[in-house]
Amino acid sequence: MNIPLNIDIQQILLHLINFAILFIILYLVLYKPVKKFLAKREQYYADMDQAAKDKLAAAEATEAEYKLRMEDAEKELAAKRAEMLKAIDAEAEALQQEARIKAEQIIEEGRRAAQIEHDKIIEESQDEIQQLAIEAAKKLVTDDPYEQFLGLAEEGEGSR
Q1: Is the torsion defined by CA of 93, 98, 101, 103 positive or negative?
Q2: Measured between alpha carbons, how far is 87 from 150 in angstroms, rounded to an integer?
Q3: Which residues are bridge partners to 3 per DSSP?
């Protein structure tokens, strides 16, 4: 069989069969394992990506839960702080009231002591005035006023 242009059909078919055998061998030896390896690798990374997404979602949920807990704790702390401030204000008011009462008692005791001292001084001064009046009356009764005048005059001249 001789075809023009020197083409041998038997050679072409032989080359086609060789190519088909090579293709099948390469498909079975290289393509299938590489494709299987790539599929496993793709699945591995897809699983890793899914696990990371799951962990991220869990972390976000935990973060949201912690934020809620923190807000609740802050509210609770604010309530306790307000309660403590009210208690401190009440205690401070009670201490101030107690201090006012003690101050009033001290002032009252001071007034009483001052009044007692005043009465004592008045009484003593009245006793002294009585003694002076008695002595003056004795001098007036016993001594002659004219002689007293002369005695005082003589003392006045001696002091000049």
Answers
A1: negative
A2: 85
A3: 7
